[in-house]
Amino acid sequence: MTDPLLPAIEIETGPAPDAAVIWMHGLGDTGHGWSEVVPALRLPRTLAVRFLFPHAPKIAVTINNGFVMPAWYDFHEGNLDSRADLPGVHRSQAQVEALVARERSRGIASGRIVLAGFSQGGAIALYAGLRHPERLAAIVALSTYLIAPASVATDASAANRDVPIFMAHGTQDPVVQFRWAEASRNALTAAGYRVEWHTYPMPHSAVPEEIVAIGAFLTRALTVTA
User: Fold this and answer.
1) Which pLDDT does position 78 carry in this prediction?
2) Is the pLDDT of residue 92 over 80?
3) Which pLDDT score is estimated for 80?
4) Is residue 105 domain-resident?
5) What is the tens place of the pLDDT at every residue in 106-129?
6) Is 43 inside a domain boundary?
7) What is the Cα Rg of the chain in Å?
């Protein structure tokens, strides 16, 4: 028996969408937290996009004293390579794949689907996107890091070796350290991925200039693949 689909907020920018963006929130947040971003992206009216903002399941999070909260995986203090609970990451990867499959069943081609996310959600967007068996339109990873970078060489899908990736990070981020993001970007570029890299003088958050840049990136990615 398969798990039910994650509940999600859906916003369509036009009738009969032919593209989709699945956008995962950060630790302790819900899909509501990012759902208001759509108008600020300033997408052209010619793009009809279905945005999905799924709600992560509630689990006990070790780093927060075991408190139960929305999270894509459990994680601990420590170095970058051992923070993420990989069984939890794989569970969330499967849940994202189920959302992708549902969009496919609604008539949207894999090459018109973007995986996006902030912090924990961005880590899942990268993890699932790099391993998705069919070519995606793009990946957007905000204020986040690459989970298990050493496994990318063996686990990554050949179909997404040239997928465009947008990464943005705050130079003053006290939660996901800037050097972790830089190391993640460097690991991806060393593996041959195309990474559009942006930095902003901000903490663990987002700024208007960043949102506009994401909108421009999505416009390019979805227009090129139309």
Assistant:
1) 58
2) yes
3) 60
4) yes
5) 999 999 999 999 999 999 999 999
6) yes
7) 16
Catalytic annotation present for 157: no
Q: How confident is the model at residue 225 (pLDDT cuts 50, 70, 90)?
A: very low
Q: Is 1 inside a domain boundary?
A: no
Give the total number of structural domains in the chain: 1
Q: Which residue has the tokens 């996901």?
A: 176
- The yes-or-no answer on residue 173 being catalytic is yes
Q: Is residue 3 part of a domain?
A: no
CATH assignment of the domain containing 140: 3.40.50.1820
Residue range of the domain that includes 132: 8-224
Name the catalytic one among 29, 74, 85, 173.
Answer: 173
Q: Reply yes or no on whether 3 is catalytic.
A: no
Determine what percent of the chain is predicted with pLDDT higher than 90.
88
Block residue for tokens 């999905």 = 52
CA-based nearest residue to 118, from 61, 44, 195, 173: 173
Bridge partners, 197 (sequence order):
167
Of 92, 119, 143, 184, the active-site residue reads 119
